[in-house]
Amino acid sequence: MSQPPSSIEPVWFVEATYAPDAAETRVPFRAQHLARLLELEDAGVVIEAGAFVDVSASILLVRAADETAALELFRDDVYMRNGVWVELRARPFGRVIRG
Predict the structure, then answer these.
(1) Alpha helix segments (H runs only) across 1-99
(2) pTM of the model
(3) Contact 1, 87 (CB under 8 A)
(4) Distance between CA atoms of 9 and 93, rounded to whole angstroms?
(5) How far is the CA of 57 from the CAs of 15, 17, 44, 85, 88, in angstroms?
C-alpha cells in the first residue's frame, strides 16, 4: 500500500497557561473569547484551538510569520487582559497536511 502524498506546513503551537482560578474567572469572558477565536479561524489564522479539561492551559495552532506574531495574536485576548490566562508561549510546529 502506498503512502498518500503529504507535506509539512510550518505553523505555531501556542500554549496559554490559565490562572489557578480560571474555571470561575473565565465565565464572564468566555463568549467574547470564543467569538474572536472563531473569527480568527474563519480568517484562516487559527487552525485549531481548545483547552485541557483540567483548565490548566489552552492550546492553539496558528499560522503566523514568526514567534512574535504568533504571540501577538493573543496578547490582547480578553482572557489575557482579565487575568484568565497568565502566560503565553509559542513553539514552531510542523503540521502534516495532505498533498
Answers:
(1) 22-25, 30-42, 67-75, 78-81
(2) 0.91
(3) no
(4) 8
(5) 6, 4, 22, 8, 10
Grid coordinates of 67: 514567534
Q: Supply the DSSP symbol for 39.
A: H
Task: Kindly give, in sequence order, each residue whose CB lies less than 8 Å from that of residue 87, ignoring residues fewer than 6 positions away.
Answer: 16, 17
How far apart CA 14 and CA 54 sit, in angstroms, is 18
pLDDT of residue 1: 67
In whole angstroms, give the CA distance from residue 22 to residue 67. 25
pLDDT digits (tens, 9 = 90+) for 4-37: 789 999 999 999 999 999 999 999 999 999 999 9
Q: What is the mean pLDDT of the chain?
A: 96
